[in-house]
Amino acid sequence: MSWAWRVAAVTAVVVVAAVGQDEGGGETSGGFLSGVMSGLSTLPYLGNVLRASVHPLYQPLVGPLQPSSVIREDAQEGGDSGEEHCFGELGCLALPDAFFHAVHRPINLPPYRREEVGVVFTVHAREDPQGTPVPAMHVEGVLNSSFSARRPTKVIIHGFLDHTGVTWMLDMVRALLAAQDLNVVTVDWSGGSQALYSQATANTRLVALEVAHLIHFLQDKAALEPRHVHIIGHSLGSHTAGYVGERVLGLGRITGLDPAEPFFQFMPPAVRLDPSDALLVDVIHTDADSIFNFGAGFGMRQPVGHIDFYPNDGRSQPGCDSLARVPLTALTDGLSLLEGLDAAQKEFVACHHNRAAKLFTDSILSRCPYTAFHCASYTHYLKGKCVSCGSEGSRCARLGLPADRWRGTNNTKQVSLYLSTGQGPHYCLYHYLVRVAVADPGGVGGSAHGRLRVSLITEDGDIKDFDLSKERPLVLQRGQSYSFFLDHSEDLSSATEALVHWRYETDLFNPLSYCVLFCDTSLAITRLTLASVDTVAKEKQERKIVATKGKSAKNEEDEDEVEEVVVMCHKQGRSVVIVESEAMVKVVASPLCPPANLSTLTADATTTTSAFTYPMELVTAGLQSLSSVLSAMT
């Protein structure tokens, strides 16, 4: 229901403004309105909105909502198309026609002056975790910081209304330094981000000039190699990173964390983040319900990288529709109460949008692989129809920091990848394919109607339940196999035992499923097969590193054919396990079980016998039984 809260908040502000104006701007009314707005403006996050600098174009609309002390009197007017605005050593920016569109980008403004945006870099390293601030206008100060060109460099750029003191940036810096020996540079452009959105989008171009200037300076003075630079941008920061990539040849990587949609979606590549901006561009979409389609999303749906990740279809993130997450976030995020409160405000206002940053941060130290797969749609993914990495390994990747292990190249066609995540605080889920081979011991065919549940038993004896018929009863044709795509917050790949529970149910609209007198309500299976999708994908990703050390392509292909699954069957090796209705039977992994491999698991339900047709004698017998019962009742 986060969209409802957003609409309510905006409506409340508009109503307050209207009341203040309708009452004629009297002293009492004006004092009350001014007091309310001044009080709200002290809040760390919401206050950014109310304190935002306003372009003269909007002053008649927004002016009444702001204290007079923050209304800009000297904001730059929009220039003519093609007019250049120069910024000293940084160079000049034009306002080309490509940056204007009547629908997608109806306002094209020049950036603020350098002094107004006031970009500040903070250089962090393991020996200086708190960081050393370096004003962008005195970039030479970076040489007196802990920066070392011998280490890889991460640059983090925040988005609209933020600053470098926000909790998600602090958490990301800590996680990166804990994981690797790095230079981590945060970019504070709060002087330009805390403006109206249209002006903030314009200011991103100036921020990009400042970051590109820093990289070029370090190239000249410290022998920094751009291919070792990874820029991580959230929201507007994603597109800022793209502008940097335009000006830094051979930039190593850009990660876009839910790139902002308004003024960027469906615009030309020069206006937004795109694959040409770095050697690898990976993007995480978490808030893609377009605001232009009456959704509440702030992020793009359009794929803009080499690999675009869509956790939970890139739309509704688990847990974001519950207000209970807000106090929980205050307790779990950050290292202090103030950091927790800052994170809680963002959860309340933009939970889906900020989830991208949380997923990336969690991926840094997580042992769970965050494996995503290329698929036609999220619906296909949930059905387990596309959990293969492909022959080249480019159809799967790991979301977050390990995305650079992707086996594609920058010449590979853009790949959209899907995965499911949980509610947090650790969001990664492990994924499994379970395949149930239904037996036909009597050779009579037919189907079994009912509900099926499987419980995997871990090495520690814990039982993890999965309802395979949660949405509706299953119709299982005898002699066929059925695949089910499951996820869990724990790694269950070592499970070698399972409990199979079956409950027969009739189908109201199928008389042949009615159980009258002589009928079989049991379920017969030959085996249950468990495959950890993430484990197989992780092994394929790691082979990329092995291959670079001289391993032949032929050997890689040979290894691809060797994929392990756990096959469970009757504990004494019997060919068929009979599960009576309302009963539970244990199956175990055993050398006596019939073999299986992953290639059979990734297919749809596969018939293991010839195509089934209902034998006429069964139909006749069923109708005769039903007729005899009806006759007895009358």
Written overview of the protein:
This protein is α+β, with helices and mostly antiparallel strands and 634 residues long. The protein is built from 16 helices and 24 strands. The chain has helices at residues 2-22, 27-41, 46-50, 59-62, 114-117, 167-179, 190-193, 197-222, 236-247, 325-332, 337-365, 378-382, 533-547, 553-560, 598-601, 616-633, and strands at 84-86, 92-94, 120-125, 128-135, 153-157, 183-188, 229-234, 253-257, 280-284, 307-311, 371-374, 396-398, 415-419, 430-438, 447-457, 463-467, 474-477, 480-488, 497-504, 523-532, 566-569, 577-579, 583-589, 606-607. Strand 7 (229-234), helix 9 and strand 8 form a beta-alpha-beta unit. The radius of gyration is 30 Å and the shape is elongated. The two termini are 56 Å apart.
